[in-house]
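User: I've been going back and forth on whether these two constructs are worth ordering. Before I decide, could you fold them both?

Assistant: Sure. I'll take them in the order you sent them. The first construct and its structure tokens:
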Amino acid sequence: MNKKVVLVLGGLVLGAACALATGRVRAQAIAPPAPSAPAPRWEQDCEQTHGIDEARAVAKARGESGWELVALDAGVMCFKRLAPVPPKPADPWPGY
């Protein structure tokens, strides 16, 4: 027999013997995922720029005010930032 075939068959036999010797293997239970917070809301804005100097100035100004550059194509720069959380409505007047 070919040496490689003998080695492969020997490995298979050895692997099967180890599997039989260790017994049954059980998977661990997975805990259900914890309830997640609501997905964040984003503001988006795109702006056309003409040239590298203008694009650099726009990116710097937007970055300083919390915007993140997410796309750039043919001079159009698109930004996003977290939308401000709307204030909770005031409790209604109790009426007394």
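The second construct, handled the same way:
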Amino acid sequence: MSKYPILAVIALSLAAPVLSGCVAVAATGIYAGVSAVRQERTFGAAIDDVRIKSAVTSRLAGAEAWNFVNVSTTVIEGRVLMTGRVDDPEERLAATRIAWGVEGVRRVDNVIEITDSAGLLNRPRDIFIRTEIAADLLSDAAIKDVNYTIDVVNGVVYITGVGQNQAEVDRVIARASRFKGVKRVENFVVLKDDPQRYFGAATAPATPEA
């Protein structure tokens, strides 16, 4: 099975800074539609995820009272994972509320860390670790890597996506754990036959945790 589509993700990531907002979203949407053929997500779900991610990102950027420049989001079938860094608990809580305000969001997992500017010094190392893990998963024929998204914050690896089975997920976690600089691996993967893919929570919790 060809794994070349993951190279498109890398290309889009490198090109993003020079693309206008609309063009970048359109390019990502095109890739989402193409890659959905190989993913467990349907074409419609992949496009919806692009829309949700774009809306969350836009609202975070437009929140003048807060600084979310170091916050990243991953969206899989309406489930939003928020990672990164903010300065205080109120910002973290505000990010959760913003994500829940976007139509189509079914769940929000907020693992944003509260840290000072010193934490930014770890960012280059985090990017390097993420690149190493992505390349490693790409090389493993037993892993359908296109279904996984990796983010790294202060040495903590966050894995989201849809796993074929528990054995594959365990394999991904084991491979991600072995790299130098990895403190731990947090697993947010849903198995492809898990009912929560279709019947997960669709309303925000009454009191999101800070």
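Notes on the second construct follow. DSSP finds seven helices and seven strands in the chain. Strands lie at 71-76, 79-86, 107-110, 113-114, 148-153, 156-163, 184-191.
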